[in-house]
Amino acid sequence: MAINLYKTSTPSTRNGTVDSQVKSNPRNNLIYGQHHCGKGRNARGIITAGHRGGGHKRLYRKIDFRRNEKDIYGRIVTIEYAPNRNAYICLIHYRDGEKRYILHPRGAIIGDTIVSGTEVPIKMGNALPLSAV
């Protein structure tokens, strides 16, 4: 994984690195918004919880936790940051044309292939049922 080091311009940017593999342009059919109208206000719109509000708009990514594409190989296309969870996610392109997000397996890089099923090899990113482990 390529890590870019940047020249220090202010004290807060010392020792800063940026991972160049992480991208943040999500697929439109795999994200959905949630209506965040509260921001610390009650039903009348009066502030009841101080020091809350503002912030950047965050869209939820649909994560495939079931991994029910059995015995179909998929390739990791992008690694993205999900703003609503403390984890990175991967966009997977399956050979049948379907695209899904999964949680990023530690050590997986762009271009790796993953598969889920009962007779798949045990390696990082593959998904097996507990009866097959």
Describe this structure in words.
It is a single chain. By secondary structure, this protein is an all-beta fold. Helices cover 0% and strands 26% of the residues. The strands form 3 sheets. Strands 3, 6, 7, 8 and 9 form a 5-stranded mixed beta sheet that branches.
Notable features of this structure?
9 strands, 0% helix, 133 residues, mainly beta, two-stranded antiparallel ribbon
What can be said about this structure in brief?
The chain is mainly β and 133 residues long.
**H and E order:** EEEEEEEEE
Specify the biggest β-sheet.
Answer: 5 strands, mixed
Helical segment count: 0
Outline type: extended
Distance between the termini: 30 Å
Structural class determined from secondary elements: mainly beta
SSE blueprint and pairings:
Elements lengths: L2 E3 L11 E3 L2 E2 L7 E2 L27 E2 L12 E8 L6 E7 L4 E5 L9 E2 L19
